[in-house]
Amino acid sequence: MTLNEVTDPALAVGASVAFYKRLGRTLIVSSPHYARFTCPADDATFSVQLVDAVQPSSSTLVYFETASLDETVKQLQRDHMAFVQQSRGEPWLWREALIAEPAGNVICLYWAGVNRLNRPWRIGS
Fold this sequence. Notes:
This protein is of the alpha/beta class. 16% of the residues lie in helices and 36% in strands.
């Protein structure tokens, strides 16, 4: 089994489409109530679906990985996108930045490098 699809709620699908296209996602399905994107590095997909309201504090966090995290954050800031958290090194050895999308869902942009699957404290197989 592989993870293929994650869907976030959207209050305005058009605004969400514009946001995720700015993050480099490729739009493959578009309707007034739903949009789906591919991720550039593989065949995983991500979508947004129109809802009447977003739950105030969802505990689900979607991660998009990029080897050029700091450059990506700087470019998005030049494009006037505001970050909840600037890129920084985390204790779990990933570099992360947090950005809120139009419906208020927080998205993590990150780079993990060799620590993506092989952290020093990884459980052996």
